[in-house]
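Whether sequence alone determines local backbone shape is best considered at the level of individual chains. When preparing material for the folding task, we compiled for one chain both its residues and its backbone structure tokens. No coordinates are needed to read the tokens, only the vocabulary itself. For completeness, the protein is quoted in full, as a sequence line and a line of structure tokens:
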Amino acid sequence: MSQNITRQLVHAVHECFTPGQSKRADKFNSTIDTRWKIYSSSSRQDMLDLAKDFGNFLREHDPAKTRAYSIQRDTVQAYIDSKASTCVDKTIGKIMSRLGKLEQCCKHTYSGSADQFSWNVGMADIPASTKSADFVKDVPVPPDVSRSVISALQEKRSEVGNAAFLSAYAGMRANETTHLKIKDIHFDGGEFGWGYIEIVKGPEGGAKGGRPRVIPILNPDISNNLIEIIGDKKPDDYIAAKADGSRMMPDNVQRALRDVMDAKYGNTYKGNRCHGMRKTWAQNYYDEVRSGGCTKKEAVAKTNEVLGHGTDRGEQLVKMYVKNIW
């Protein structure tokens, strides 16, 4: 096994990805061990995010652990405990579940040393969240901050600045920005007449839960900026690509935003980068449709829909994004 613990964990996730196989069918077959299997692309991405985060924690806090099988219960507990101050109880529960899955993935991938594993995730104590209600993740990112950050990111070799632009001016999630292709941007029609962005169905669109949706372009300035960004790209090109033209990962976007925003603004937007940009866009969209004559109920439903939450989620969910519901 590689000496890089993060790479080991990531490798185990890739090895246990089983696209095309039926989770339902496997559950009804008692001869199949489903504990290590990762069936969907979205689940694989969640597991990769966890593997990288856990690996980075190990390298910082327990560098003596250089092999996946050397991880022990005390290290697992320390990692879980570290999440109490920044995660709500529901998120901590998800982390615990995925950590247990990661343990099974590693046992399966590194079967020659499976007997040496003693993570014992199932025996770890689940800490209660101590996250403050005023945690900075609730802070929207102001337009002037977004402009400054996007400008700084344009200096990089990759097109990560384009991804940040899509979050700030189209309310897109990081994963969606890295999947968006030129052919999914349209400059005719749309709710406000300036065109629209289409998030396509399924994992190829990067949408959370695979839900398709249409995001209206709010004004001519955004439309003109998108036209400039596209330049001479071809329909199947990514709007936010790596230097070699390939698709970048959401991690690339989040890391670049973290580096620039933390350097410029310290902890002001810590843990709230793309998400904070989405909040600002959501307020702008809500204000537009409300000013256009929609009732509050209609504006809430429309805002939920364009954010990718569905039209029936109600005012409670919108309040997480739109602080001024009028």
